[in-house]
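ok so i was messing around last nite and threw this chain in just to see what happens. nothing serious, just curious
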Amino acid sequence: MKSAILEAIGESELQSTASLNAALAANDRVKYAFSLLQLALAHAEHPEQPAPTLKQERIACGIDDPELDTVAAGARMVADRCHIAGAARIIARIRDDMGTMAAPVRAADPEGLSARLDKLLDALPAAADDQLDPRAILEMTQARPDRGDSLHGLVMDLHKRLNALQATLAEEVIDGAAAYGLAEADRPSVMAFMNGLNRTAKLKFAHPGLGTTATRVGDRLVIQNDIGTTDAHVIVIHVQGNAVSVTYTDVHPERLAFFRDMLKPHNVSWEEGRTAVLAGGTPFYLATGRLDAPDAENCRTYLEFLGSRLVFLIDWNRARKQLRGFLRGPDRLSLLGWAAEAEVGHRGFLELGGAQLVNRAIEAAAGSSMHFGDRLCVVLGDGEALDFLRFTFQAATEGLLSGQSQRLIHDRVRANLAAHFSNEERRLLGLAADHAGLIFEIASLVGEGLQAESDGSEKRAKRARRFEHDADQIVVEMREAVRRRPDYAVFLPLLQVADDSADALEEAAFLLDLDGLQGEPREALRILADLLTEASQEWIKALGHASQIGRAASAAETEDFLAAIDRIAALEHQADDAQRGLASSAFRQAKDFRQLHLLTAIGGKIEAAADALKHASLILREHVLEDVIDG
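result:
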């Protein structure tokens, strides 16, 4: 051991540092050995499942023994015992490494620690003929306080003590990282990592965590960060040349997946994840990723980015749960991903109460729009709800960082939510305007079909059918919107009545395809179709003006809205007169009863379309005058 050599040559001041380095390296090797034994037992009990080699982990912890890479795959059950090639050597390694790991701590607690260590080492199985009792493997490699002390439990306790010693033995602090035993070439890498960490660390606010230590172990720079307060939530980074290896552990597999997603811009290569058992039987998950940078500059860029991401892991699962009442699962992940990418974070949202912050805004702004048990994404729609939560995250973070009062931040969130609720009126009017645009398109097709030199009636009929189908889909969307927001129920009958116009016009386009009408009746139909085309334009105008009433320049918009509604009524009266003219012309000019019926049917459909637009316009007029202006 290096500490003994240092003592012998009189360099006792470095003895503690060398002993600590050796202990940390031994910690990595013991955990590797535990994982190897667990995987070997799992494969022996379930040989049909593939067994990982753990080669990457073996290399990362400095064990130069390639034969260990085949140990798990070769394990098998022999009666009630598990045969693991080299089991005796593995147990011997564990015994030696436990002694090395405990050495720096023994000085502070020689009696208690020594007695505990000796007792657990005495209980190690002999591994005769490389066979182990499965229960002995589990007792050794799992921390279960309810079942007594275990070697794994001691490893966890020692690691905490070693981390505390590491901080106290630091030779220097590099941008907040406790560092010791570094080579001069290590400093730029540590500084790069800390530059990223410190840039975003403010986003954790009052939450503890992100303590960093850096040291050199053999030919590798090792950077360790405690992230938050959870025992199993740790990241260890090994830097060797321009290669960066990351070992990340977590009790939440969803957060582990989120961490991996954050590193996607750097194309990190990940090994298949593994699980182990924490104290109390709770599983935790482990992932190892590696990046081979092309040069030192790219290596430092990656380390800086990696450091900047860690704050977004703190309380991540808590934030995800707090969002359940407001967003669907994929949108919750999307929001948290956006918050990390934009370096807004979610801790500000949690500092201000999380779900409580949003619920208070809903109580103040939603009125009758929401009822107990409603989800915000169902009432507002997924997109609107996601936009509001993005604003909430940003307002919370920026407000807290700039020293705004919590009352002001709450008021801003409430005002933004109120705007989203009022936006529903304009959104539904926008849907109705899209529907009106399709009515105009069908009316234009009917008008084109009645031009003197027109042909291609079959193609126009097909296009009219497509437009009418699109209009039906908008009605379906409106029905769903009104189901979410019953306070806007008026828009469903409005659109259903307007859709009668689209249906009638599509039928008129179909009937036009049945016969090449000529002469005076055709001209009468054209006049009727022109009136309907103009009425559909006025309907579009009315909806556009209605969406602006109550905003800037609302007086002028109101005048224009009322003029458009009045014009639709006038055009409907003219359409009545035009239909009567058509009936007279058809009676006199039709060459047979079939043509007379066709002319009358087409005219009736166009006039019915004008009636539907007038009816829809009156529904809109009543809503605007009574609910928007007077309301």
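not much to say yet. The chain is about 65% helix and 10% strand.
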